[in-house]
């Protein structure tokens, strides 16, 4: 536990909830039967929920790869078209964002930095500055695609990650088995580095529609022209997917643009306070999708007739306070997922597993269609878990969409 963390008084700022944490393991292990977690159905080891089942489930501790992760004889294979993008060609993300870390020490800047006085959540990053990014885009085109036909598609953040190594094979098999529609898969590389002060963090952890518009306006037109495909404009046929921060971005894309995306799949989504720079309207970043800001109350001002005056208090968390949106959401979190990777920010809003449980609670309370997997014996973006669950997760995600 970071020094100075408030673990005893819920009424004081930046309370850190240690309930259900076993600190004898590194990272700490969570107990899924914690009283303040939503109730979940624990499945026999090695099994997954029935197709289409909704709600909260506990799986593990063993994770054998699904048979659909292996290429099979006689199954038609899709084709892959790749190209690169540069920030010089972008309007939305030009210039890019570069952070000067110590050579060979990823994230060194944010591991040794400080926070704003009296605000353990507001990180000061002085090593971040404008720069240039390049990224690779890999487009999977399903087998036997009819030229000119409008196709559904899924956008993957953190394109090129080893976590997605089986994605194309899984799609080949599921499409052949008619468990998902023939679709285009678009893996978009991130802009580089990670977390606060980095281009990747700027893209994925910012709670706004900026990244969604970057994909819509700058990436998808290139995908259509370079890969020779026609992407559907029907939001029911457009899905987003990601891991860690890009998993948060996948949900953020659908939240701000349900007119563009309505199906979301995420592994270890970063629904915590990692937005940088801090936005006074959402000081807790993605944490405020499911829970209130944990810090001290501050004056909430607005401009009226050219003068600053007191206004209403900040609103409730985003999901509980908004009308239900047409989003279908599959997500997963491990029992050994991230917990305060940065010791400078013990603010009560950096527990990945707790954030997933709180997401499950507010989604259930609002009546969303979702499936949440609490996974035993699983770490952050756990590769065996992905190999076990990806085929069934994709099938669940596309439930209700017509398969020709």
UniProtKB/TrEMBL annotation:
Coiled-coil segments on the chain, per record: none
Organism: Bradyrhizobium oligotrophicum S58
Name of protein: Putative esterase
UniProt superkingdom: Bacteria
Lineage: Bacteria, Pseudomonadati, Pseudomonadota, Alphaproteobacteria, Hyphomicrobiales
InterPro entries, per the entry: AB_hydrolase_fold (IPR029058), Esterase-like (IPR000801), Mycobacterial_A85_antigen (IPR050583)
Region (Disordered): 1-45
